[in-house]
Amino acid sequence: MVNENSLKQFSKKSDLIFEQLKRDFIGQEEVVENTVIAMIAGGNILLEGVPGVGKTRLVRSLGRVFNLPFSRIQFTPDLMPADVTGTNIIVKDDKGNSKFKFQPGPIFSNIILADEINRATPKTQSALLEAMQEHTVTVMGDTMALNEPFFVLATQNPIEQDGTYPLPEAQMDRFMFKLLITYPNLKELNEIVSMTQITMEEVAESVCNAEELLEMRKTAKEIPVASEVQMYAMKLTMATHPDSEVAAAVTHKYVRYGASPRAAQALITAGKVRALINGRFNVSYADLNTLASPILRHRIKPNFEAITEHVSTDDIIKQIIKELGHDTPEPTGNHRPQAPTSPDDVEGKTKKSKKDRK
Fold first, then answer.
1. Interior/surface letters 237-255, b for 16+ CB within 10 angstroms, e for the rest
2. Could you tell me which of 72, 143, 134, 74 has the C-alpha nearest to residue 109?
3. pLDDT tens track for 92-123
4. Using one digit for the tens of pLDDT, what is the confidence trace for 282-299?
5. Structural domains of the chain sorted by starting position, each given as residue range(s) with its CATH number in brackets
6. Which residues pair with 139 in a beta bridge?
7. How far apart (Å, rounded) are the C-alpha atoms in residues 165 and 117?
8. In this structure, what DSSP letter does residue 96 have?
9. Per the confidence metrics, is the pTM higher than 0.70?
10. How far apart are CA 110 and CA 42, in angstroms?
11. Which residues, listed in sequence order, are joined to residue 88 by a DSSP beta bridge?
12. What is the rounded distance in angstroms from the CA atom of residue 78 to the CA atom of residue 1?
């Protein structure tokens, strides 16, 4: 059962995590925050950005901060599924007899960087499907569980599209977030150059281990969500479907296919983590609105009219939020308050407000 002490520990631990990540990674606060949210929530991330903006450095820093093994897989057109998952090899035993022995691939780690994932063939891309969803790998009929926590951060280059294979819808849907990493501004670029002139190595220290990360995940799952807020997450997801009873006007005009039920699950799961990181014990509309773009942008398929009019999925999501009427600001005093309200108080206030409305 979650209590006030465990919630304070969650907030304190998240402060330490962000403090250490800032030692290695300049700027991109939204990307860093959402990456940590996904790790705690148990999701995976698709990171889109040009080369040289620190994608690999971010993953290496996460491995140091969480004290977890890190593997990098460079996806190329000639990469085979066995290069990712591992394969059975023939070895000799003590008596000289031949037998099969499984040689684990780089997928058997805690943090996986799938670099330029769209450069591999669909056959190789599919090797990640089972690992990302079930956290297991099956080779020649034998199913092996991966170590927990398991986290995949895949990258793709939005500029070069020659020789690439677009990710299938089933795999795109398995990414909790799609994050867009932008080029640093002038100040950030100057800080990056100054930092790398001292050392190119990561200097972040470990402040959280695997057991503590899993405990934070367990704590977040026990946070209550008001029925109205949860219903808003369902409407936000269903509003992306043109044939839904709550479809927004912008959806009818620009959307071909909407988000899957995984989007609604991600909104609630990630919303709980974000609320705790910001020192609150309840998920707000603002949490869901902030997380809507990274969760929905890769799950919405725009139609031909949206493409010709240069309407992005982010534009569609913003308009859907506006039409649903919950484009609210962040709750006041949200970031790690000194005297937080306990979960029981939040639940009591919710019941009291319902009674007053009656």
1. bbbbbbeeebbbebbeebb
2. 72
3. 877 778 888 888 888 998 898 888 888 888 88
4. 899 999 999 999 999 999
5. 1-219 (3.40.50.300), 223-343 (1.10.8.80)
6. 142
7. 9
8. S
9. yes
10. 12
11. 102
12. 49
